[in-house]
Write a structure and sequence with these properties.
The structure holds two protein chains of two kinds. Chain A is an alpha+beta fold. Chain A has nine helices and 25 strands. In chain A, a hairpin with a 2-residue loop joins β6 and β7. Chain B is globular. The chains are: A alpha+beta, B alpha+beta.
C-alpha cells in the first residue's frame, strides 16, 4: 500500500473521525454539529531522532513520507534498534461497532434524547444557567508500519453532559451530571439520576458552610478515588519521566513497597468506555498492567521507547490526542481495586472527618491536589453538614501509606467533556474509578 | 442569505526535548475552513480540513440550516482590517541547529539538571470574511519554549520550569531566564515569616484571576447565577484595580483582534472592571442581546461550530511602578508552579505551591519549600491588591502582586 523508505523505520496512523455535538443553553439550541474528517500522522525513525508530520492530505501520504525521509539519516541497522525491535506487529480488522455503531442512530433520535431531559433542568427555579450536551465520537484507525503492522480498528463513545449554575438564597454553585457509555441506548432512562443529583446539589448549596482548615481523615467516593489514583500515582507510572534518569530508576525499582498493603492500582485499555484503547497509537495491543499490587510497585506504563530504555515489556499506553500529535505515554482506564469493607463501615469508623463525593479538578506531582465540589463532614461515624472546601492536598508517597480502608464496591467512570492533560495534549479521554477509600492526615483548606 | 467564511491555519515546527537532547522534530500545516450561512434567523455551518471544495461546503452549510440553530443577530459588516504581527525567525533547519546548540550550553552550564519538553515556532493565520463587507485578517508567529527542568539527584517527576514566549528567538534571553531560575533553585531559603506576605504571580498565570473570569461570564450574570449579579456599576475592588479583555500586540498569546463573530473592540481592549468598579461582564452577541448588556466581543468557536460566549484573554492593567517599587522594600513569594488550587463557590481561595522563590522585586533570591496560599476574592483585589508591575522583572514577565496568607505546606 505504501512504499516505506529503506533503512528507516516508518509508521502511519490514519484517523477517520465522526463526531456529533448537540448543545442546549437555557432551553435554546446552541449547537447542532455533525462533523467528519480524516487526518494522518507519519513517523520516521533513523535510530537517532524521530521525524513527524501531521497532514490532512490523505491522498498524498506517500509524498509526505518521502519528504519526511529526506530529513532522516540512512541506518542499515535500523531494524535491530532496540526501540524498533520492541514494536508489536499486529495485523487484521477489529471493527466492533459496525453493527451497533453510533453512526446507525438517526440524528433526530439523538436530538430527541437530549430534549427529553431538558424539562428536569427547567423545572428547578434554583438552576439559573444550564447547558445540556449530547456528544458522540466514533473513530476508525488504520495503522501501518515498515515492520509489517497492518491494522484497522474502531471505538466509540456517546455522552450526556449537564452543566448548571445554582443560586440558592444568594449562594452559588457550579455543578454537573455526566454519563458516558459505549452504546446509545444506555443513555436512556437517566431522569431519576439527574433529578436526584439536582436536588442533592440544591440542598448542598443551601446548607454548605466553610470548612475549618486542618488535617482530616477523608473518605473519597469512587469518582474521587479514581482521580486520586490517576493524579497521585498514575502520572508517576508513566515511564517517559524515567528515561535516562538514574535517580528515578533507583527510586522506583519494581518490587519496592510504595503504599498500604491493601492498595492495588491497575491501568488497562481493555475496559469498554472512554479509556478503551484496543491498540495504542504504535499498534500495541491493550494489556492489563498492575501499577501497584498489595502496596508493592509492580509495573509502569510504556511506549516502545520507554519499554526499550527500561528493558521492560510494552503495555499499550502510547497514545496521541489526535492525528496532529505524536503518541506519548498516557493512561487508559486507571482504577483502584476493591477492598473488604462496606462504605457504611468506612464512615462509621470515623470520629471527625470529611466525605468527598465529587470534585472539580485534580493534579499530581510530589503533592497531589483535589478541588472538591461536594463534601460533607463526618461526625461520630455519621454523615453530617455539607462543607465548602477549596482544595485538599497531601504528599503522594506519604498519602499512599495513609489509606486505611477500602470498600467492596467499585465503579468505573468514563470522562465526557474533559479528560487528561499532559503537556500540550489535552483533553485525552480516559477512564478512572475505584471503590470508596479512606485516607488519614489529608490537608484540607 | 448572508455567507461568511472562517479560516484558521496553523503552521508549526515543534522540537521535543528529552534529557537535554532534541528527540524529535514535528512539522504541521493544518488548514481548517468553516462556511457559515445566515438565513431567516438561523445559522448553518459546514467545515472541512485541508483543501476543501468551497461550493460543496456552501451546499452543506445551506443544508445544515435545516438543523434549526437560531442565530437572530446581525453578522458583523463593512469592516476591513489586517494585522500582521509576524517577525523574522529562524528557518526550520537553523532552528533545529540552534536548539541543539542551546541544549549543549545548558548541558555545560547545568550538568546537575536535565531539560525536557517542547520548543516550538508556531505561525497562526485567522481570517473572517463575509458577503456584508467584513474582511478581517490576523497573522502572528510565536516562539514558545516550555522547558521542564529536573535536578538529576531528585526523585521528583520535575523540579522547575522555564517559560519563553516571544515573537523572536533570543538565545540570551532564554538562557538568562533559565540561569536566574536555577541559581535561585540552588539556594534554599525560608519565608521571612508565616502569615500575610506579598505574593507575585507571572503575567500568564490565571490562577489568581480564575474566579473573576468565571463570575464575569455575561450569561451567568444575566441569569442571576453569578456572585456579581447585583454588582454591575458597583465599586467592589481596589480603586487601582482595572481588569480588561485584551487583544493588544504585547499580549503575544491570544492577540487576535477580532472574535468569532467579527467584533473588534476600540484599541483592541474592553474594561470589565475599571478602577475597582464592575463595568460589564463579557458577552457575545446573543448574551448582550438577551440581557441588554454591552457587547464585548467575547465569542469563540471552532471553525465549524456556532460562535458562542467564552472567556478570551483577560489581564490586569499594569501600574506605573516597577515590581521593586510595588514591593516597597518587602520580600515577595514568587510563584512559579501552583497546581491544583481553586476558589470555593463563595470566593475563598486556596492553593498549594509546588515551586516558589523569594524575590526582592529585581531578582529571585532563593528557593522556598512547598507552601500553601489562601485569600478571599474581594480582599485579593481590594485591600490586599498591591498592583501589577510595569517592568518584566519576574523571569522576563510582568508580575501581579497581592498580599496573601502564606504558610508552609
Amino acid at each position: 500500500m505504501y512504499t516505506f523508505p529503506k533503512n528507516l523505520y516508518t509508521d502511519i496512523r490514519i484517523e477517520d473521525v465522526n463526531y456529533t455535538e448537540i448543545t442546549y443553553r437555557n432551553g435554546e439550541l446552541a449547537e447542532n454539529l455533525r462533523r467528519n474528517y480524516m487526518g494522518a500522522f507519519i513517523r520516521i525513525f533513523d535510530g537517532n531522532r524521530w521525524y513527524y508530520s501531521s497532514t490532512t492530505d490523505i491522498d498524498n501520504i506517500q509524498k509526505e513520507i518521502d519528504k519526511l525521509a529526506l530529513m532522516a539519516k540512512d541506518n542499515e541497522e535500523i531494524m535491530e534498534h532496540p526501540i524498533v525491535k520492541k514494536f508489536e506487529v499486529n495485523r487484521g480488522e477489529f471493527l466492533q461497532f459496525e453493527g451497533k455503531g453510533i453512526l446507525k442512530v438517526d440524528h433526530k433520535e439523538k436530538l430527541a434524547l437530549l430534549n427529553s431531559y431538558l424539562p428536569i433542568l427547567e423545572s428547578k427555579e434554583e438552576v439559573k444557567m444550564w447547558r445540556a450536551v449530547y456528544l458522540d465520537k466514533k473513530i476508525t484507525k488504520e495503522f501501518y508500519s515498515s515492520k509489517g503492522a497492518d491494522l484497522k480498528f474502531d471505538y466509540q463513545t456517546c455522552s450526556l453532559a449537564f452543566r448548571y449554575s445554582l443560586n440558592v438564597d444568594g449562594k452559588t454553585l457550579d455543578s454537573r451530571y455526566d454519563k458516558t457509555d459505549i452504546y446509545f441506548d444506555r443513555l436512556k432512562g437517566l431522569e431519576n439520576e439527574l433529578e436526584k443529583r439536582l436536588n442533592n446539589d440544591i440542598e448542598y448549596v443551601r446548607h454548605a458552610k466553610p470548612v475549618k482548615p486542618g488535617k482530616y481523615t477523608v473518605i473519597f467516593a469512587p469518582v474521587v478515588a479514581g482521580v486520586f489514583a490517576h493524579e497521585s500515582f498514575g502520572h508517576k507510572s508513566e515511564a517517559d519521566f524515567m528515561i535516562g534518569d538514574q535517580t528515578m530508576m533507583e527510586e522506583w525499582p519494581i518490587g519496592k513497597r510504595v503504599g498500604a498493603d491493601t492498595l492495588s492500582i491497575v491501568d488497562t485499555g481493555q475496559i469498554l468506555g472512554s479509556g478503551f484503547v484496543p491498540f495504542d497509537d504504535e499498534g500495541t495491543k491493550a494489556k492489563k498492567t498492575y501499577l501497584i499490587k498489595n502496596g508493592i510497585l509492580t509495573g509502569r506504563l510504556h511506549s516502545a521507547t520507554t519499554a526499550a530504555a527500561l528493558n521492560e515489556e510494552l503495555t499499550g499506553n502510547a497514545r496521541a490526542l489526535n492525528f496532529e500529535y505524536e503518541p506519548i505515554v498516557r493512561m487508559t482506564t486507571t482504577y483502584i481495586e476493591a477492598g473488604d469493607k462496606t462504605k457504611e463501615e468506612l464512615i462509621s469508623e470515623v470520629k471527625e472527618g470529611i466525605l468527598v463525593l465529587d470534585y472539580n479538578h485534580g493534579s499530581g506531582m510530589s503533592t497531589f491536589t483535589i478541588a472538591p465540589r461536594i463534601s460533607y463532614m463526618i461526625r461520630d461515624g455519621k454523615i453530617a453538614e455539607p462543607v465548602n472546601i477549596s482544595v485538599i492536598s497531601g504528599n503522594v508517597m506519604e498519602t499512599l501509606y495513609e489509606i486505611d480502608g477500602i470498600s467492596k464496591e467499585i465503579e468505573i467512570i468514563s470522562s465526557s467533556l474533559g479528560g487528561c492533560g499532559k503537556m500540550e495534549q489535552f483533553p485525552l479521554p480516559i477512564g478512572n474509578g475505584g471503590p470508596y477509600i479512606r485516607v488519614k492526615n489529608v490537608t484540607v483548606q | 442569505m448572508i455567507k461568511e467564511k472562517y479560516i484558521n491555519r496553523v503552521k508549526e515546527i515543534s522540537l521535543n526535548v528529552v534529557q537535554t537532547e532534541v528527540e524529535s522534530v514535528r512539522k504541521k500545516d493544518i488548514l481548517k475552513t468553516g462556511l457559515r450561512v445566515y438565513d431567516k434567523g438561523y445559522i448553518g455551518i459546514a467545515g472541512g480540513l485541508g483543501r476543501v471544495d468551497e461550493e460543496e461546503l456552501e451546499r452543506r452549510a445551506i443544508d445544515n440550516l435545516s438543523l434549526k440553530v437560531p442565530y437572530p443577530y446581525n453578522p458583523s459588516k463593512e469592516l476591513k482590517k489586517e494585522v500582521d504581527y509576524r517577525e523574522d525567525v529562524l528557518s526550520d533547519e537553523d532552528f533545529v541547529n540552534e536548539i541543539d546548540e542551546l541544549l549543549n550550553i545548558l548541558k555545560d552550564e547545568f550538568p546537575d539538571f536535565t531539560f525536557s519538553n517542547k520548543i516550538n515556532i508556531t505561525e497562526v493565520e485567522t481570517r473572517l470574511v463575509n458577503s456584508m463587507g467584513l474582511d478581517l485578517g490576523y497573522k502572528d508567529r510565536l516562539v514558545l519554549g516550555q522547558l521542564i527542568i529536573k535536578e538529576k539527584a531528585s526523585a521528583n517527576v520535575f523540579d522547575a520550569l522555564a517559560l519563553y514566549i516571544e515573537r523572536q528567538y533570543r538565545r540570551e534571553l532564554f538562557l538568562n531566564i533559565i540561569r536566574e531560575t536555577l541559581e535561585a533553585y540552588r539556594n534554599p531559603v525560608k519565608l521571612p515569616k508565616e502569615g500575610k506576605l506579598p505574593v507575585i504571580f507571572m503575567n500568564y498565570d490565571i490562577t489568581p484571576v480564575s474566579k473573576l473570569i468565571d463570575e464575569l461570564n455575561g450569561y451567568k450574570v444575566g441569569t442571576g447565577a453569578s456572585l456579581f449579579k447585583d454588582f454591575m456599576g458597583k465599586m467592589k475592588f481596589n480603586e487601582n484595580f482595572t481588569f480588561y479583555q485584551s487583544a493588544e500586540r504585547e499580549d503575544l498569546l491570544d492577540a487576535q483582534f477580532f472574535d468569532a463573530e467579527g467584533v473588534v473592540n476600540e484599541g483592541f481592549k474592553y474594561a470589565l472592571i475599571e478602577n475597582g468598579r464592575i463595568v460589564s461582564p463579557y458577552t457575545d452577541k446573543k448574551t448582550a442581546h438577551k440581557f441588554n448588556l454591552p457587547l464585548t466581543g467575547s465569542a469563540s468557536g471552532e471553525y465549524d461550530k456556532v460562535p458562542s460566549l467564552s472567556p478570551r484573554n483577560y489581564k490586569i492593567e499594569a501600574s506605573d511602578k516597577t515590581l521593586k517599587e510595588l514591593l516597597n522594600g518587602q520580600l515577595a513569594v514568587a510563584v512559579v508552579i501552583a497546581s491544583g488550587g481553586d476558589f470555593t463557590a463563595d470566593g475563598v481561595f486556596g492553593t498549594p505551591v509546588q515551586l516558589a522563590f523569594l524575590s526582592d522585586g529585581e531578582r529571585l533570591i532563593g528557593r522556598l519549600p512547598e507552601l500553601k496560599l489562601s485569600g478571599e476574592l474581594y480582599s485579593m483585589f481590594g485591600e490586599d491588591f498591591i498592583g501589577k508591575s510595569k517592568d518584566k522583572s519576574f523571569l522576563g514577565q510582568n508580575a501581579l502582586a497581592i498580599n496573601l496568607d502564606v504558610k508552609y505546606l
